[in-house]
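Sorry to interrupt, but I need a hand with the structure work. Could you add the entry underneath, on a fresh line?
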Amino acid sequence: MQLYYSPGACSLSPHIALREAGLPFELKKVDIRTKKLEGGGDFTQINAKGYVPALRLDGGEVLTEGAVIVQYIADQRPASGLAPKPGTLERYRLEEWLAFVGSEIHKSFGPLFNPSISSDWRAGLTATLAKRFDWLDPQLRHRSYLLGESFTVADGYLFTVLGWARHVGIDLGKWPALAAYLQRIGGRPKVIEALRAEGLAQ
């Protein structure tokens, strides 16, 4: 498999999942501004949407959209525990978390990286994220991971987007359970491997 990624982008989530699952894969770096592959090539020939992540499977097919990709990865190694068994209520809980992180947190962070957004828009997005964090923080006060005491692909996704807070001036210290969660996930050996591979950690 080949994972098309940009350092620190949402593609970090499937990168973490691949390492946690112990699956063989190759990293393909993408400049998401120019849509060019490292070493040459047009990324839009891989994913016409023009953004990461994209996962090229061994048969040549390409999957896009992070929440789908991480579930595919988890299902290749069911014993890893990265996702509950399909069809179970716990699997739908996982999908519930993936949807929440994607629609309520990820999408609010994205525009904050645009230096040209207005101060009013920035303030509104920051206020929206604060409300989401106000709800999320107590969810993590008495459990280690989103689904309880087992790490899943939803945790890799939440870790990825929470990591953007410091880049946009949001102090997670206001939400101690979230800050502790970020530190806890960031200490996992496979997460550290992924961060180092993307040049995000020493």
Notes: The longest helix spans residues 89-109. The helical segments are 12-21, 66-76, 89-109, 119-139, 153-162, 176-186, 189-197. The chain has seven helices and five strands. The chain has two domains: 2-80+190-197, 89-188.
